[in-house]
Amino acid sequence: MDPASALEEIALLLEGALANPFKAKAFRKALAVVEQLPPEALAAKVADGSLRRAPGIGDTTWQVISQAAEGRVPDYLADLRAKAGTDAVAPTGLRAELRGDLHSHSEWSDGTTSIAAMARAAAAAGLEYVALTDHSPSLRVANGLTAERLADQLEVVEALNSGGDLGVRILSGIEVDILEDGSLDQTPEMLARLDVVVASVHSKLRSPRAAMTERMLRAVADPHTDVLGHCTGRLVQGSRGTRPQSEFDAEAVFAACAERGVAVEVNSRPERQDPPDDLIAIALAAGCLFSIDSDGHAPGHYGFLRLGAERAEAAGIPAERIVTTWPLERLLEWTHRER
Question: Taking the model in full, what pTM does it have?
Fold first, then answer.
């Protein structure tokens, strides 16, 4: 055990448990301080206590650092490991077959960490590729990306992939808002440049059934749409409270998805668990493809994929129809298909 490893693991466990995000951020801030110091300098600053007074180091993070520097598991980490229980076991079943994740966020919109940190965590979770899908402009509360900011992000993604040291391929992407008229909240020119487009409804979730159905059908028909994200918008637990699911003609929407080759997302976030089981059954019967995604906003959120995989497995979705089990080459052939 060393300080950096202890701080990283604590942040991951807190994020995976959906703890207050400020807790995980405190450990990641301390991690950034530790990682900037060569081993000898770090050891010296721990030994003389000067690190305790450094900006970004608090009482709890100092205790973790000092205990880890002694080569032992910090008390704080031991407690978190005990609470995590079986969540820390190696993946099995359908989760073990997942190669990628097509829905994740970074600090460019409403995620908590850098693109590189998310990519490294995806690699550590055993993934081969991960789509960076920050929000689109109309979702201002989530700092959605304008076309100009998205273009800048594409340059960052290209540079990170060129570095070749992340252990995972970052796919360019977006979680684009389905606007009230069913259009997608980004320019067609920018959408055409992306590897993956996840289209989701984030507003007017209580619209009448007929209006919501037409809205979603138009989005599914858009040639840029690859994945229909968290289709009902429901919340079933968590700090944001609960929210009922949107009403729409599931048979019509999923038939359109099947016809257009658009995957229905199995959103793995514990507070979403979207779609509900009955809608998964309708999509399955319609012949839809599926995408098991974390909707991760922090590195520890890739652990949510286990829940999504378990739900998909219980629903009887064959692995072959889950695009995130496909090799990268096949996945990109699908997202770049002629429509």
Answer: 0.91
